[in-house]
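Weekly structure sync, notes
Attendees: PL, DS, HV (note-taker this week)

Item 1: Cystathionine beta-lyase
DS walked through the input record. Source organism listed as Pararhodobacter oceanensis. Sequence as pasted into the shared doc:
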Amino acid sequence: MKRETKLMHYGRMPTPGPANPPVMRASTILHDTVASYKGTKLARESDDAVLSYGRRGTTTAHALAAAISDLEGGEACFLFPSGVAAVAGALAPFLGAGDHLLVVDTIFPATRTYCDTVLTRLGVTVDYFPWDTTDLGAYAKPNTKAVMVESPASQTYEVMDLPALCADAHARDLLVIADNTYGSGWLYRPLDLGCDVSVVAGTKYLGGHADVMMGAVAVKGRATAALRKHTHMTGQTIGPDDAYNCLRGIRTLGLRLERHEENGLALAKWLADRPEVASVVHPGLPGHAGGEIWKRDAMGCNGLFSVFFTEGFDAEGFVDRLSLFAIGSSWGGYESLAMPSNPEAGRQFPNTTRSGQMVRFHAGLEHIDDLIADMQASFDAATG
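Item 1 (cont.): predicted structure, written out as C-alpha coordinates:
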Protein backbone atom coordinates (compact mmCIF):
# COMPACT_ATOMS: atom_id res chain seq x y z
CA MET A 1 0.00 0.00 0.00
CA LYS A 2 1.31 3.45 -0.91
CA ARG A 3 2.17 5.67 2.05
CA GLU A 4 -0.23 8.39 0.85
CA THR A 5 -3.04 5.86 1.25
CA LYS A 6 -1.77 4.74 4.65
CA LEU A 7 -2.12 8.30 5.96
CA MET A 8 -5.86 8.08 5.36
CA HIS A 9 -6.28 4.77 7.14
CA TYR A 10 -4.14 4.97 10.27
CA GLY A 11 -6.27 3.98 13.26
CA ARG A 12 -9.28 3.11 11.12
CA MET A 13 -11.93 1.30 13.16
CA PRO A 14 -14.35 -1.43 12.02
CA THR A 15 -17.34 -0.18 10.08
CA PRO A 16 -19.85 1.10 10.69
CA GLY A 17 -17.77 3.50 12.75
CA PRO A 18 -16.06 6.91 12.74
CA ALA A 19 -13.42 7.76 10.14
CA ASN A 20 -11.06 9.02 12.83
CA PRO A 21 -10.51 7.16 16.11
CA PRO A 22 -12.57 9.06 18.70
CA VAL A 23 -11.08 10.85 21.69
CA MET A 24 -10.95 8.54 24.70
CA ARG A 25 -10.38 10.34 27.99
CA ALA A 26 -9.67 7.92 30.80
CA SER A 27 -7.40 7.26 33.73
CA THR A 28 -8.87 4.18 35.41
CA ILE A 29 -9.76 1.17 33.27
CA LEU A 30 -12.29 -1.07 35.00
CA HIS A 31 -12.43 -4.89 35.10
CA ASP A 32 -15.07 -7.38 36.24
CA THR A 33 -12.63 -10.00 37.48
CA VAL A 34 -9.19 -10.22 39.05
CA ALA A 35 -8.18 -12.54 36.22
CA SER A 36 -9.02 -9.89 33.65
CA TYR A 37 -7.01 -7.28 35.53
CA LYS A 38 -3.97 -9.56 35.84
CA GLY A 39 -4.24 -10.61 32.20
CA THR A 40 -4.26 -7.01 31.04
CA LYS A 41 -1.17 -6.14 33.10
CA LEU A 42 0.65 -9.12 31.63
CA ALA A 43 -0.42 -8.40 28.05
CA ARG A 44 0.66 -4.76 28.12
CA GLU A 45 4.30 -5.72 28.65
CA SER A 46 4.50 -7.06 25.10
CA ASP A 47 1.71 -5.09 23.39
CA ASP A 48 1.82 -1.28 23.56
CA ALA A 49 -1.79 -1.03 22.31
CA VAL A 50 -3.31 -2.76 25.34
CA LEU A 51 -5.67 -0.42 27.20
CA SER A 52 -4.61 -0.75 30.83
CA TYR A 53 -4.22 2.64 32.53
CA GLY A 54 -4.30 6.26 31.41
CA ARG A 55 -0.62 6.71 32.18
CA ARG A 56 0.16 4.34 29.30
CA GLY A 57 -2.20 6.18 26.95
CA THR A 58 -5.70 5.48 25.77
CA THR A 59 -6.78 4.09 22.41
CA THR A 60 -6.45 7.56 20.85
CA ALA A 61 -2.76 7.78 21.74
CA HIS A 62 -2.20 4.16 20.79
CA ALA A 63 -3.49 4.86 17.27
CA LEU A 64 -1.17 7.84 16.92
CA ALA A 65 1.85 5.91 18.20
CA ALA A 66 1.18 3.12 15.73
CA ALA A 67 0.91 5.64 12.88
CA ILE A 68 4.20 7.35 13.70
CA SER A 69 5.95 4.02 14.16
CA ASP A 70 4.89 3.06 10.65
CA LEU A 71 5.89 6.43 9.20
CA GLU A 72 9.35 6.12 10.75
CA GLY A 73 9.83 2.43 9.98
CA GLY A 74 10.13 1.54 13.67
CA GLU A 75 9.18 -1.45 15.77
CA ALA A 76 7.52 0.75 18.37
CA CYS A 77 6.81 4.41 19.14
CA PHE A 78 6.38 6.21 22.46
CA LEU A 79 4.72 9.59 22.95
CA PHE A 80 5.84 12.57 25.04
CA PRO A 81 4.27 15.93 25.91
CA SER A 82 6.78 17.96 23.83
CA GLY A 83 9.68 17.55 21.45
CA VAL A 84 12.29 18.37 24.09
CA ALA A 85 10.66 15.86 26.45
CA ALA A 86 11.02 13.28 23.69
CA VAL A 87 14.71 14.13 23.29
CA ALA A 88 15.22 13.67 27.03
CA GLY A 89 13.23 10.44 26.96
CA ALA A 90 15.28 9.13 24.06
CA LEU A 91 18.61 9.76 25.78
CA ALA A 92 17.89 8.85 29.39
CA PRO A 93 17.47 5.05 29.05
CA PHE A 94 20.95 4.64 27.62
CA LEU A 95 23.07 6.93 29.80
CA GLY A 96 24.13 6.97 33.43
CA ALA A 97 26.77 8.42 35.71
CA GLY A 98 30.22 7.84 34.25
CA ASP A 99 29.01 7.43 30.66
CA HIS A 100 30.04 9.55 27.69
CA LEU A 101 27.72 10.98 25.01
CA LEU A 102 28.75 12.33 21.61
CA VAL A 103 26.53 15.02 20.05
CA VAL A 104 26.76 16.65 16.64
CA ASP A 105 27.73 20.30 17.08
CA THR A 106 24.87 21.56 14.91
CA ILE A 107 22.20 20.07 17.18
CA PHE A 108 18.99 21.89 18.16
CA PRO A 109 19.97 24.47 20.86
CA ALA A 110 17.44 23.15 23.41
CA THR A 111 18.98 19.69 23.08
CA ARG A 112 22.43 21.17 23.70
CA THR A 113 21.11 22.90 26.81
CA TYR A 114 19.63 19.65 28.13
CA CYS A 115 22.86 17.77 27.50
CA ASP A 116 25.08 20.46 29.02
CA THR A 117 22.98 20.98 32.14
CA VAL A 118 20.80 18.01 33.08
CA LEU A 119 22.97 15.20 31.74
CA THR A 120 26.22 16.64 33.05
CA ARG A 121 24.61 17.17 36.48
CA LEU A 122 23.75 13.46 36.44
CA GLY A 123 27.38 12.53 35.79
CA VAL A 124 27.30 12.10 32.01
CA THR A 125 30.17 13.61 30.03
CA VAL A 126 29.16 15.30 26.78
CA ASP A 127 31.40 16.15 23.81
CA TYR A 128 30.57 17.56 20.38
CA PHE A 129 31.81 16.70 16.90
CA PRO A 130 31.52 18.38 13.46
CA TRP A 131 28.48 17.70 11.28
CA ASP A 132 30.53 16.15 8.43
CA THR A 133 32.11 13.46 10.65
CA THR A 134 31.83 9.86 9.50
CA ASP A 135 34.72 8.42 11.55
CA LEU A 136 34.26 8.85 15.31
CA GLY A 137 37.74 7.62 16.13
CA ALA A 138 38.93 11.06 17.22
CA TYR A 139 35.95 11.56 19.54
CA ALA A 140 34.84 8.20 20.95
CA LYS A 141 36.09 7.03 24.34
CA PRO A 142 35.99 3.69 26.13
CA ASN A 143 32.95 4.89 28.10
CA THR A 144 31.06 6.33 25.11
CA LYS A 145 27.57 4.86 24.98
CA ALA A 146 25.61 6.80 22.37
CA VAL A 147 25.72 9.36 19.58
CA MET A 148 23.08 12.10 19.12
CA VAL A 149 22.68 13.48 15.61
CA GLU A 150 20.40 15.81 13.67
CA SER A 151 20.22 15.97 9.90
CA PRO A 152 19.70 18.40 8.35
CA ALA A 153 21.30 20.56 11.02
CA SER A 154 19.24 22.85 13.18
CA GLN A 155 18.97 26.31 11.58
CA THR A 156 21.75 25.87 9.00
CA TYR A 157 20.67 22.52 7.45
CA GLU A 158 24.01 20.83 6.78
CA VAL A 159 23.31 17.21 5.83
CA MET A 160 25.12 14.35 7.56
CA ASP A 161 26.09 11.09 5.89
CA LEU A 162 24.06 9.02 8.34
CA PRO A 163 24.67 5.59 6.77
CA ALA A 164 28.45 6.09 7.01
CA LEU A 165 28.30 7.53 10.51
CA CYS A 166 25.98 4.78 11.77
CA ALA A 167 28.22 2.08 10.35
CA ASP A 168 31.19 3.51 12.22
CA ALA A 169 29.19 4.00 15.44
CA HIS A 170 27.83 0.46 15.39
CA ALA A 171 31.32 -0.93 14.79
CA ARG A 172 32.17 0.74 18.12
CA ASP A 173 29.00 -0.67 19.74
CA LEU A 174 27.40 2.78 20.05
CA LEU A 175 23.69 3.56 19.75
CA VAL A 176 22.73 6.34 17.34
CA ILE A 177 19.82 8.62 18.23
CA ALA A 178 18.55 11.05 15.58
CA ASP A 179 16.42 14.17 15.82
CA ASN A 180 14.22 13.75 12.76
CA THR A 181 11.85 16.67 13.25
CA TYR A 182 12.84 18.20 9.88
CA GLY A 183 11.90 15.01 8.00
CA SER A 184 9.12 13.88 10.36
CA GLY A 185 9.04 10.38 8.93
CA TRP A 186 7.73 11.61 5.57
CA LEU A 187 10.80 13.18 4.01
CA TYR A 188 13.47 11.26 5.90
CA ARG A 189 13.71 7.96 7.81
CA PRO A 190 16.85 7.74 9.96
CA LEU A 191 15.96 4.23 11.15
CA ASP A 192 16.26 3.04 7.54
CA LEU A 193 19.67 4.73 7.31
CA GLY A 194 21.08 2.89 10.31
CA CYS A 195 19.98 4.88 13.36
CA ASP A 196 18.55 3.03 16.36
CA VAL A 197 16.22 5.77 17.63
CA SER A 198 14.39 8.58 15.82
CA VAL A 199 12.90 11.57 17.65
CA VAL A 200 10.23 13.82 16.16
CA ALA A 201 8.65 16.95 17.60
CA GLY A 202 5.06 16.31 16.54
CA THR A 203 4.41 19.92 17.49
CA LYS A 204 5.75 20.73 14.03
CA TYR A 205 4.68 18.99 10.80
CA LEU A 206 2.85 16.00 12.24
CA GLY A 207 0.28 18.22 13.94
CA GLY A 208 0.64 20.84 11.24
CA HIS A 209 -1.74 23.45 12.64
CA ALA A 210 0.24 25.23 15.38
CA ASP A 211 -2.08 23.96 18.12
CA VAL A 212 -0.50 20.74 19.45
CA MET A 213 2.46 20.09 21.76
CA MET A 214 3.78 16.56 21.28
CA GLY A 215 6.96 14.54 20.88
CA ALA A 216 7.48 11.00 19.64
CA VAL A 217 10.32 8.50 19.79
CA ALA A 218 10.35 5.70 17.23
CA VAL A 219 12.74 2.83 17.87
CA LYS A 220 13.86 -0.51 16.54
CA GLY A 221 16.26 -3.30 17.40
CA ARG A 222 18.22 -3.53 20.61
CA ALA A 223 17.11 -0.09 21.82
CA THR A 224 13.41 -0.99 21.92
CA ALA A 225 13.17 -2.82 25.24
CA ALA A 226 15.12 -0.21 27.20
CA LEU A 227 13.12 2.68 25.77
CA ARG A 228 9.82 0.92 26.44
CA LYS A 229 10.77 0.22 30.07
CA HIS A 230 12.00 3.76 30.72
CA THR A 231 8.96 5.41 29.13
CA HIS A 232 6.54 3.34 31.17
CA MET A 233 8.45 3.79 34.43
CA THR A 234 8.59 7.57 34.04
CA GLY A 235 4.91 7.85 33.07
CA GLN A 236 5.42 9.58 29.75
CA THR A 237 2.36 9.98 27.54
CA ILE A 238 0.20 12.69 25.96
CA GLY A 239 -3.41 13.68 26.47
CA PRO A 240 -6.04 12.16 24.18
CA ASP A 241 -7.09 15.52 22.72
CA ASP A 242 -3.55 16.29 21.54
CA ALA A 243 -3.26 12.74 20.22
CA TYR A 244 -6.51 13.18 18.28
CA ASN A 245 -5.46 16.53 16.80
CA CYS A 246 -2.05 15.20 15.80
CA LEU A 247 -3.53 12.11 14.15
CA ARG A 248 -5.99 14.32 12.28
CA GLY A 249 -3.10 16.51 11.15
CA ILE A 250 -1.22 13.49 9.80
CA ARG A 251 -4.01 12.89 7.26
CA THR A 252 -2.77 15.87 5.21
CA LEU A 253 0.96 15.51 5.97
CA GLY A 254 1.96 14.57 2.42
CA LEU A 255 -0.09 17.30 0.76
CA ARG A 256 1.05 19.97 3.18
CA LEU A 257 4.73 19.13 2.80
CA GLU A 258 4.42 19.31 -0.99
CA ARG A 259 3.23 22.92 -0.66
CA HIS A 260 5.77 23.79 2.04
CA GLU A 261 8.57 22.50 -0.18
CA GLU A 262 7.28 24.31 -3.25
CA ASN A 263 6.94 27.63 -1.43
CA GLY A 264 10.21 27.26 0.46
CA LEU A 265 12.27 26.57 -2.66
CA ALA A 266 10.60 29.39 -4.58
CA LEU A 267 11.32 31.89 -1.81
CA ALA A 268 14.89 30.64 -1.34
CA LYS A 269 15.65 31.04 -5.06
CA TRP A 270 14.01 34.46 -5.19
CA LEU A 271 15.95 35.70 -2.17
CA ALA A 272 19.25 34.32 -3.46
CA ASP A 273 19.09 36.86 -6.31
CA ARG A 274 18.50 39.85 -4.04
CA PRO A 275 21.45 42.28 -3.55
CA GLU A 276 20.63 42.52 0.16
CA VAL A 277 21.26 38.76 0.60
CA ALA A 278 24.72 37.31 1.14
CA SER A 279 23.67 33.64 1.05
CA VAL A 280 20.70 31.31 1.42
CA VAL A 281 20.99 27.90 3.08
CA HIS A 282 18.46 25.31 1.90
CA PRO A 283 19.07 21.57 1.32
CA GLY A 284 17.42 21.78 -2.08
CA LEU A 285 19.68 24.50 -3.51
CA PRO A 286 22.72 23.64 -5.65
CA GLY A 287 25.98 23.63 -3.72
CA HIS A 288 24.38 23.17 -0.32
CA ALA A 289 26.59 21.47 2.29
CA GLY A 290 25.69 17.79 2.02
CA GLY A 291 23.02 18.50 -0.58
CA GLU A 292 23.98 15.50 -2.73
CA ILE A 293 23.65 13.22 0.29
CA TRP A 294 20.19 14.67 0.93
CA LYS A 295 19.16 13.87 -2.64
CA ARG A 296 20.40 10.32 -2.12
CA ASP A 297 18.79 9.66 1.27
CA ALA A 298 15.70 11.89 1.49
CA MET A 299 12.41 12.33 -0.35
CA GLY A 300 12.21 16.09 -0.52
CA CYS A 301 12.51 19.25 1.58
CA ASN A 302 10.19 21.05 3.97
CA GLY A 303 9.46 24.76 4.26
CA LEU A 304 12.52 25.77 6.27
CA PHE A 305 15.46 27.81 5.02
CA SER A 306 17.77 30.49 6.41
CA VAL A 307 19.07 33.72 4.92
CA PHE A 308 22.29 35.55 5.73
CA PHE A 309 21.87 39.20 4.85
CA THR A 310 24.71 41.44 3.74
CA GLU A 311 26.70 43.32 6.36
CA GLY A 312 24.93 46.46 7.48
CA PHE A 313 21.48 45.46 6.24
CA ASP A 314 18.81 45.87 8.94
CA ALA A 315 17.51 42.30 8.98
CA GLU A 316 15.35 42.81 12.06
CA GLY A 317 13.72 45.85 10.48
CA PHE A 318 13.05 43.78 7.38
CA VAL A 319 11.30 41.14 9.50
CA ASP A 320 9.31 43.75 11.40
CA ARG A 321 7.87 45.13 8.15
CA LEU A 322 6.62 41.74 6.93
CA SER A 323 2.88 41.24 7.28
CA LEU A 324 2.35 37.63 6.20
CA PHE A 325 5.41 36.29 8.01
CA ALA A 326 4.76 36.35 11.74
CA ILE A 327 7.46 36.21 14.41
CA GLY A 328 7.18 33.23 16.71
CA SER A 329 8.88 30.14 18.02
CA SER A 330 8.38 26.75 16.40
CA TRP A 331 7.54 26.02 12.75
CA GLY A 332 5.83 23.28 10.77
CA GLY A 333 2.34 24.75 10.98
CA TYR A 334 0.37 26.17 8.08
CA GLU A 335 1.63 29.69 8.80
CA SER A 336 4.73 31.49 7.50
CA LEU A 337 7.30 32.58 10.09
CA ALA A 338 10.47 34.64 10.28
CA MET A 339 12.91 34.57 13.20
CA PRO A 340 16.27 36.37 13.54
CA SER A 341 18.86 33.95 14.88
CA ASN A 342 22.54 33.51 15.67
CA PRO A 343 23.11 29.86 14.73
CA GLU A 344 26.82 29.76 15.58
CA ALA A 345 26.24 30.76 19.22
CA GLY A 346 27.49 27.98 21.49
CA ARG A 347 28.87 25.85 18.67
CA GLN A 348 32.38 24.50 19.11
CA PHE A 349 33.00 24.20 15.37
CA PRO A 350 31.46 27.40 13.99
CA ASN A 351 31.33 28.21 10.29
CA THR A 352 33.60 31.24 10.02
CA THR A 353 32.87 31.85 6.33
CA ARG A 354 29.43 33.30 7.01
CA SER A 355 28.78 36.90 7.97
CA GLY A 356 25.81 39.20 8.38
CA GLN A 357 22.64 38.67 10.39
CA MET A 358 20.70 35.44 9.81
CA VAL A 359 16.93 35.06 9.64
CA ARG A 360 15.30 31.64 9.67
CA PHE A 361 12.16 31.47 7.54
CA HIS A 362 9.38 28.94 7.44
CA ALA A 363 7.34 29.01 4.24
CA GLY A 364 3.71 28.35 5.07
CA LEU A 365 0.80 27.39 2.86
CA GLU A 366 -0.10 30.85 1.58
CA HIS A 367 0.01 31.59 -2.15
CA ILE A 368 3.60 32.09 -3.25
CA ASP A 369 2.81 35.33 -5.10
CA ASP A 370 1.57 36.92 -1.88
CA LEU A 371 4.62 35.76 0.10
CA ILE A 372 6.99 37.20 -2.49
CA ALA A 373 4.99 40.45 -2.65
CA ASP A 374 5.24 40.72 1.14
CA MET A 375 9.02 40.39 1.02
CA GLN A 376 9.27 42.75 -1.93
CA ALA A 377 7.32 45.40 -0.04
CA SER A 378 9.65 45.12 2.94
CA PHE A 379 12.73 45.44 0.74
CA ASP A 380 11.19 48.44 -1.02
CA ALA A 381 10.49 50.15 2.29
CA ALA A 382 14.11 49.69 3.31
CA THR A 383 15.31 51.65 0.28
CA GLY A 384 12.38 54.08 -0.02
